[in-house]
Specification:
globular; 79% helix; Growth Hormone, Chain: A; 18 helices; 0% strand; mainly alpha
Length: 506
């Protein structure tokens, strides 16, 4: 066991922060580039949803088995393999020449990320003394999250300066540095009592999530009554339920269900599900709003997210220290409440919003809430016997990634439905001629990325632009309201389930 102040401890922490930060960075960098990628490949909301969710699907479905692989074969070994896969996939994403290729290689990135992220936390859990573990997790959360939060700013600059492919190439030098440090300094550890790996359970989770995600994304595209959307959705739900029912009785289950005897672990994972659903929904749609409605450049949109970046980076460590001293319950209540208020304020912003009065206050509260909840939330989810640290880390990370996966798919369907409803009503009642109305409504699946034809008169262009942006704002407000409610629900769960300090959690 190491202390954070020791040289070995600093190097171990640096390696896991760098690798995790790289995985998290990729998600935020890609988000800021989505409007540019949408225009470059002439795709629609479904295409950019898959760019995000191909990564999230592989990450969420394989994190569970990756944690178990680390417990069985060595946490350092799986961690290093994950970095190598991520570097290769990043290069392939950067040289993709079609939306299909990009989606496939994003999935490969997700495989690498699934091997890295749970490995980071389990390495911390098995390498640092208990008295400093909360601060180590806080530093990991803060700096890896801070690196990720730099994604919008860095991504915006890269896209404007070097093109969209550069957002993937940036992972290569970071990955090589993390690979070297990890190989040289991280000690190997494993669970000597580890049991058989549940490969069949992992397959059920993957196919279940694939079916659910495909159904939710394609449903608005081809129609909810279409068997090609309805059957995958129902089949995915059935497989996921089957996984849970069969896993409870397995002695070598993908998820060791005895970790859920702790109210602390149960509460932390429920809070993670609701809070990270809301978090992913805000990031995905706020980026679209800032660039397609508020007309900020990618770099300006990245700079606009700077308050959240700085707050999460510099205050997450303090959140871990507070949890070490006073317990996780209070920060897990007040953190999500603060996030909820921030999301509510973001919902109030309209077209041509003033950034400093209508957007920044919400982002500040959003960052404050996340900074104080991330570390105690993570530490609570890992409050298990050390031999289960890899599996517990995998479960918590899987819950967070599944939340993000479902958020982009489900909120995308809701947003498109509301956008279409408002746009159809507004355009049909407008002064545009029938041909112009048809040209706009045919592109409704692009949301605010609809391209107004050059044949439109100047007045028609302004009218169409206003109706498109108003329709997006209408749907955006509902989506932010849903996210604010889920963040509030996270605080409610923490209040009723997370035990007060000093009380048993079993």
């Amino acid at each position: 066991m190491y202390k954070i102040s020791s040289l070995e401890g600093k190097l171990i922490l640096f390696a896991v922060i760098l690798a995790s930060g790289m995985a998290f960075l990729d998600g935020t960098v890609v988000n800021i580039a989505l409007p540019v990628i949408e225009a470059k490949f002439k795709t629609n909301i479904f295409g950019i949803q898959w760019i995000v969710n191909a990564y999230a699907l592989m990450l969420s479905s394989l994190i569970l088995i990756s944690g178990s692989l680390g417990d069985n074969f060595g946490r350092k070994k799986i961690f290093i393999y994950g970095i190598a896969v991520f570097i290769l996939a990043s290069f392939m994403c950067g040289v993709s020449s079609s939306i299909s290729q990009l989606i496939i290689f994003r999935g490969l990135q997700g495989i690498g990320g699934a091997m890295m992220v749970p490995g980071s936390l389990s390495i911390i859990n098995s390498s640092f003394e208990h008295s400093t573990r909360g601060r180590a997790i806080g530093l990991w959360s803060g700096f890896s999250g801070g690196i990720a939060a730099l994604g919008p700013f860095l991504g915006g600059w890269l896209v404007q300066t070097f093109g969209w492919a550069s957002i993937f190439f940036i992972n290569i030098p970071l990955g090589l540095l993390a690979l070297f440090i990890a190989f040289k300094f991280i000690p190997e550890s494993k669970n000597i009592a580890a049991k058989r790996i549940d490969y069949f359970g992992s397959l059920l989770v993957f196919l279940g999530l694939l079916g659910i995600t495909y159904g939710l994304i394609e449903g608005p595209n081809i129609g909810w009554n279409n068997p090609l959307a309805l059957f995958p959705l129902m089949f995915g739900l059935l497989l996921f339920i089957t996984f849970i029912l069969t896993s409870v009785k397995k002695p070598y289950s993908l998820i060791p269900f005895n970790i859920f005897k702790s109210n602390l672990v149960v509460g932390a994972n429920i809070v993670t599900l609701f809070l990270y659903f809301a978090l992913s929904g805000v990031i995905f749609f706020l980026v679209l709003n800032l660039q397609q409605v508020q007309h900020l450049t990618p770099l300006q949109a990245g700079l606009g997210l700077l308050p959240t970046i700085l707050i999460i980076t510099f205050l997450s460590g303090r959140g871990g220290s507070i949890a070490d001293k006073f317990g996780p319950r209070l920060p897990m209540i007040f953190g999500p409440l603060t996030v909820s208020v921030g999301m509510f304020l973001l919902a109030l912003s309209g077209r041509n919003a003033n950034y400093f009065t209508q957007i920044m206050p919400g982002l500040i509260l959003f960052g404050l809430g996340m900074a104080f909840v991330i570390a105690p939330l993570t530490k609570s989810a890992l409050s298990v016997e050390e031999k289960y640290s890899g599996a517990a880390s995998g479960v918590n990370n899987a819950v967070a990634r599944i939340a993000g996966l479902l958020a982009v798919a489900l909120l995308g369907a809701i947003c498109l439905f509301l956008f279409t409803l408002k746009l159809d009503s507004s355009i049909r009642a407008s002064r545009l001629n029938q041909t112009e109305k048809k040209q706009i409504l045919e592109q409704k699946d692009k949301l605010a990325g609809i391209e107004i034809p050059r044949s439109f008169s100047p007045d028609a262009k302004v009218l169409a632009k206003n109706e498109i942006e108003d329709s997006f704002v209408y749907s955006f407000r509902y989506v932010m309201g849903i996210n604010a409610f889920l963040a509030f629900l996270s605080a409610t769960v923490a209040y009723f389930i997370i035990p007060p300090t000093g009380k048993k959690s079993f």
